[in-house]
From TrEMBL:
GO biological process, one term: fatty acid alpha-oxidation
Name of the protein this chain belongs to: phytanoyl-CoA dioxygenase
Family matches, as Pfam families: PhyH
Positions of transmembrane segments: none
Top-level taxon in the UniProt lineage: Eukaryota
Keyword Oxidoreductase carried by entry: yes
């Protein structure tokens, strides 16, 4: 039988990516799609975030609100206090983003057709953050994930509306804390992560160095979406403007992924920290099961996440 050289390693099929787009992702570990998500869905998600912050609506499902510890001391409005909503997959409004057809189609070309969403965030960078808390240190998402292999995991991150100090629509850019990526680093290893100085937010670990490595700032408009590999080094700068910078993001994994045990490894510390965060919410589960519990089936049979996704 003839064998063919495997041309693509980091993507699965060409149903929703051209060969050129696949090659770009293979080489760089990320790809941006302009205006992939409709304003209608994004506006609903933004409003949901505001309604949850202002307590007009109670958080649904497992949703966790993360408070900016420094801004919390300054008595600002509720929309300033919360820098993140985590784990919104069981909230009907946010879930519309996670299952958005055009987005999941691209995901299916990267990781295949058996898709579970497992990590979800709405990330808020309010103006006036004092302790650099709105900076997201450079990191690799796979460092946190007890599942893989990494080729079967992908993040989708979409810019939400950003309004500047003049009340005008703005891109997400270098001044308000855009995402940056170090192209090609998805082909490397996982590096040591630590709490960087000046970052007070929980579980914001970072990697030092790489000052000479090319870095791409992703300047994005509302609805633009970047897909990125979980090993790529990336992060975001502080918001130095008087506007709010907001984005919404979901990580997808092949439902039939493997699970890894972090106990006795360098990643035990982060695993314990996250286990404790969930214990405070009365969710007492081993680290791997937390990710299953957070997850929600998107396409295909339930597979390895069945135990928890069947609770719907
Ligand atoms: O939105 C941000 O500022 C950072 C997001 C990020 O680093 C991530 O999604 O892993």
């Amino acid at each position: 039988m003839e064998t063919y050289p495997q041309k693509f390693k980091y993507t699965k099929n060409s149903a929703f990516l051209t060969d050129e787009q696949r090659q770009f992702y293979e080489d760089n570990g990320f790809i941006v799609f302009k205006k992939l998500i409709s304003d209608e869905i994004l506006d609903q998600c933004l409003q949901r975030f505001v309604d949850i912050c202002t307590k007009k609506v109670a958080p649904q499902g497992n949703t966790i609100l993360m408070k900016d510890l420094e801004l919390a001391k300054t008595g600002k409005t509720a929309e300033h206090l919360y820098y993140k909503i985590n784990d919104f997959l069981y909230d009907d409004v946010f879930f519309q983003y996670a299952v958005y057809k055009k987005l999941v189609d691209v995901v299916s070309s990267i990781i295949g057709n058996n898709i579970t969403a497992t990590h979800s965030m709405l990330i808020n960078k309010p103006p006036g953050s004092t302790c650099d808390a709105s900076r997201h240190p450079m990191h690799q998402d796979q460092y946190y994930f007890p599942f893989g292999p990494p080729e079967n995991v992908v993040a989708a991150w979409t810019a939400l509306e950003t309004i500047n100090e003049k009340n005008a629509l703005e891109t997400i850019n270098e001044k308000n804390g855009c995402l940056f990526v170090l192209p090609g680093t998805h082909k490397g290893k996982l590096y040591h992560h630590d709490y960087p100085q000046g970052v007070a937010n929980k579980a914001f670990y970072g990697v030092q160095g790489f000052d000479d490595h090319p870095r791409v700032n992703l300047i994005m408009n509302k609805g633009d979406t970047v897909f990125f590999h979980p090993v790529i080094l990336h992060g975001s700068g502080p918001n130095t403007t008087q506007g709010f910078r907001r984005a919404i993001s979901v990580h997808y994994v092949d439902t039939n992924c493997e699970f890894y045990d972090f106990m006795g490894t360098k990643r035990e510390e982060i695993a314990n920290e996250i286990v404790q965060m969930f214990a405070k919410k009365n969710v007492i589960l081993p680290y791997q099961d937390i990710w299953k519990y957070k997850g929600r089936l998107i396409r295909g049979p339930a597979g390895n996440f069945q135990k928890y996704t069947s609770r719907l």
